[in-house]
Amino acid sequence: IFEKEGIESEVIHVRDGRCNVIGKIKGVGKGKTLLLTGHTDTVPPYDMEDPFEVKERDGKLFGRGVVDMKGPLACMIYAMIGIKRANVKLEGDIIFAGVIDEEEKSLGTIDLLERKIKADAAIVGEPSNLDICVAHRGLEWFELSFHGKTVHGGKQKEGINAILKASNFIQRVEEKLIPKIEKETHPLIGTSSMNYGKIDGGTQPSTVAGDCSLQIDRRWVPGIKYSDVIKEYEDIIAELAKEDKEFKCTLKVMDSSLMKDGYVHEAMEIDLDHPIIENVIDKTQRVYGKKPELTYFTAWSDGGLLSSYGEIPTIVFAPGDLETAHSKDEQIEINQILPATLIYALIAIDFCN
Fold first, then answer.
1. CA angle, corner 229, sides to 193 and 326, nearest 5?
2. What does the pLDDT look like over 96-120, one tens digit per residue?
């Protein structure tokens, strides 16, 4: 579609036949560069009926990926097409990046960063209901493996119960770490968080559990260091091992959360005085008739990578409601699609000039 419209574009192979799509409208001077970006992958259909057939109902489009995030991507693409067709002269560049793998390990955005992409601001098209998300938490999934000694339940004193060791760990976390996490605050986001997501141990009631695993979700507000998050758990493990010579535990990042070496799911935050924010407020009010709220993105996005590793001031801004993403009722409001397209175009024209 970019080639048809005379927009410079390329398909860049990233991994296993999966490619990023890059489009660029070059400016004629030394203006600022704006990056419009989002991911082309979706989660699986799960229990969604006819997931790959877009259906229209009650003023909404339904289908897997319509809000997360094919709809916002389409708005970005057509914003660029509109600018190109109108022959608008720009001082700076507009770059579109449709990236792979955000739902897994963000290999697409990491590839952008390793190709040294440069921009003065970025808009990530995760659904925000046309509000401006200026921050989000960092994220990691950890697995703790507790190691005991399996024996028959009739000789339990000769065994080491890994479930009990996991319980001791949880109690120490509740006592020492959770109060600390809840003191990590951000004016928009609130606090950092931690969730015990899954625990699994033992084989049957009459056997002392030799192994137990605990999976946790840890999220931190901007300003918290990833290395400190790791150390918090390592310190508790070391403390319990010092108190109990039978306490043995190993900590690792879950495979499903592990990124390429050198990258983690960092938090995102932009200076509230950055000009992209006032730009988006102005254009949204003019087109949509509503002043967007400055808020935070409740999930994680590739914006964490762009802002932390690329040092690109980044916001999340797009049509649609995140609440329906990944669900059997994924949907996007039709009445937000055309306004979002025009808003993106006007933002780009203003920012790049």
1. 45
2. 999 999 999 999 999 999 999 999 9
